[in-house]
């Protein structure tokens, strides 16, 4: 059995879980309290965002974590969720006396929570272990965002579009880091690692995605403030943004890795992981047969033609800012994951998704979101692709067929990607309604489109680049 690096951070969290979790929980709680006091008039909005995030993101993950395993009970569980969601939605819009006594949340919040819950349940063959083992991830991310609210208030960015966008980014990124830890834990545990060793290795594996997320958000805020201030970078916006990202991601990593190191994990974790991999193998067989190396190469060529057509037909709004953004994202991916191939893959997939999405907006006569909203969406998409492509790097093997490498990479990485897509849309939608930020809904739609188009090209790109790597 091959060993996995644990690193200083992973080892400390796994060996001192209670101390690690307590220090971060107490520290972030204290910062959250101070933050709400410092927020002044924005205290109510900040506390509302925390509450809404608990309902829209943390509650669905908790519900998905307790999803029954038997098919009959699962159908009953889904029916109950839809029934309760329907009652609450009806109570939010109806004046009927019987429904008026139901203390219903706003309609958008009910729809968000119900939709995200059903999304996680629908993808449970891939993401059940993430929900069950990483149930603390969204709660830790919410605590991190709450802790950073004080810094936002001091720098007067709590009620700005940048503040709302960074809060959504931190929430989604933190939850995704915790989900990645739970995914790595189940993978290492199924390979025969001890509970503590698997938790330490999973915590260490989260360092690179955390670094990439920090760099990506720093690039986003640097370009945004540079454009908004005619060439001057505003550090008073960058530092609070990075603080929120760091608090949410590190807090989620410590919470999940620490909890898993003391959890009484049984062989059911390994059984679930092996069943998930077998399910994905069977589901991916049709795609595998359709995408040999030659077909994958042809698919990439056709995608390149579509990208060129999109540039000429729809143009490329804000070309300098976005070209610089893509270039810096490529550098950040290369530095974080120590891989030029991942750097090229992330930048290429992200650029393709952005170009075709812009073309689609032009075809349907839709107005592109503002530069900030697009940068927020592209940053989230880059982070999601980072989670996906690092699985490809880890799955690379000179002794395997190119399609085997792509299969193993997608089996592990696609669940991380899809989880971040779900949390990203929910986080942006929640921030949009809580902070009265219309750009959040626009960013969510743009992010969903870009992520969908980017992931369409992942399989052929992985197969072609794996075949090239094996050949050399």
Low-confidence stretches: none
Number of helices: 20
Strand content: under 5%
Structural class: mainly alpha
The mean pLDDT is 87
Shape: globular
Euclidean distance between termini CA atoms: 27 Å
Order of helices and strands: HHHHHHHHHHHHHHHHHHHH
Q: How many strand units?
A: 0
Largest sheet report: none
Which percent range fits the helix content?
Answer: over 70%
Write down the Rg.
Answer: 22 Å
Give a short overview.
This protein has 20 helices and no strands. It has 472 residues and is mainly α. The mean pLDDT is 87.
Structural account:
It is a single chain. The chain has helices at 7-15, 17-38, 43-65, 71-93, 97-100, 107-122, 124-133, 137-154, 161-190, 195-205, 207-228, 235-262, 267-290, 293-314, 319-337, 340-363, 371-395, 402-434, 439-456, 458-471. It is mainly alpha-helical and 472 residues long. Helix 14 (293-314) crosses helix 16. The protein is globular. The model has no long low-confidence stretch (mean pLDDT 87).
